[in-house]
Batch of 4 targets.
Target 1
Amino acid sequence: MGALLGVLMGFLADTFGKLFLHASFKIAIALAFIALFVAAIYAYLAGFSAIVTAHGQTVPEIVSGVWGWVMPDNTTSCLFYLMSATLLKFATIQFMNILNYKYQAAISN
């Protein structure tokens, strides 16, 4: 009985070891892509914040005062969403162009 249990445990350890090695490799790749995505989002936000800060430093004080009279408090957020929507529109159009080229290449063969 002990030998049968030893063979069964050896088989299960080998099977689960290979499965875990394969799954851990896929998880590592997925985590790398997630880290890359988060880094890209952080770089985008940091760049946008730098642009807003640079504009704030070049605007005279009197214009900043008048700006507060006519512009809402969430202007920075609105500009961020507007620029993000423009970026997403550009990326979507480029992606659709690539798909169209691939489609044309596929049907021409």
Target 2
Amino acid sequence: MNMMQEPTVLVPCGHAYCKKCISGQPSCPQCEKKHSATVPVKLIGDLVTKYIYKRDAISTFRNDSFWKNKATA
């Protein structure tokens, strides 16, 4: 239940999981349909990467001592 790493969609149900989490599973954990293939999804991976980058940038900005000194001055 963390950020997806190597997002993969199951065929034919279309549910998405981490490649590592779904490997070795004969069926979808959500709908229990047997999947015939897995397809990597670049769009989800790109969204996760952008989210992590922005989250880390905001965290750095909030924790930067320069801004903390300005707020208390």
Target 3
Amino acid sequence: MLMGAGLLSKFVELVASKLIGKRLDIALDERRRACYSFVELLSVLKGFYSITVAFVDELQKSDLETWITINLIVIHRRTIDSLTIRFFELRNDLFFTLEVLDPPLAEIFEEVHAFKGSIFYALAESLTIPEEEPRNQSIQYRRPSELVLAIDLEQFYQSLQSHRGTNSDRPWMWPEELFEMANWETAFPSIQFKTDDRRTLDQFVSDLKHQSQLLEAAIEKLRALIKDNFTLDEVLVSSTKLAQS
């Protein structure tokens, strides 16, 4: 799900912006689940950030030698898969947490994370080495389209807020490609290029840089949310639960 980390980061920034400074007046069990959800989500984001930066640094240090990309995919494949699984396993805890704290946020989350209709599920294999070509001669990745890069989550959130509790149809302001059971291939078109295609590799690195910027901003916002709302003991208990899970 590496190439979907930017979209996830945009959503996390929205969550943090709506919940920072908001008193979490919830039951003890719900508070524990909220702390666990946010701490685990932070860990997942930091993992994707670390891998994304590693790709960019190694490719630039090697003067964009394309064979390095193949090595990086092989080296980081298990970690990317592990982070993706952790994010999917967090779905219920995070959804119920958001439903209690801010229902419109839960609704936005559900739109793009509804089991196999999830765009994140579709992006689970967003960076691959095509098997049909011998000797690992090509790379394939899902590039965020311009409509994804231009998504205004704040506008969509305000739309849900203004129509909450009414029977009127709300004006959908989010691209149809990102709804449940979406045409996700339009939102994240597939790019396949030969390992000697320097121009496309430059674009790949540029896409990763943009994702790393989004991830870094989301990590800082989520870290601030956790710091403002949970004690060190609560965070440590969540971390212990992560280590044991």
Target 4
Amino acid sequence: MLTPGSTLNLAAPCLPHGISEEFFFWPIVAFRQVTLRTDDGEEVDAVWVVYKREERAIAVVGAAERLVAVDPSPETDDPDWIDSAFVITDEDGFVLRANPGASCLWQRNIARVRV
């Protein structure tokens, strides 16, 4: 089980341009289990994790063994990145695609929809 201070090491996931997988080796300072829904109405367990080293933090959302969102500046209102192959957004938040396409279709979450 993940706890603050532990690390989560994933095998080189696809990340938005300019973000290095190095942060996966930083300490975890926050962790929360969440439930997301798919576009066909199913519920899926997901995790929201914040990694931090010194003054830099990065938050991610993972679901069904996939990285679906990355926020390189969770302390600001700047939009995070979502992998649109796996997730769409609506007024209720993130919605996972029941039939995802190829990964690495990162786009800014300009609607600023949250988990």
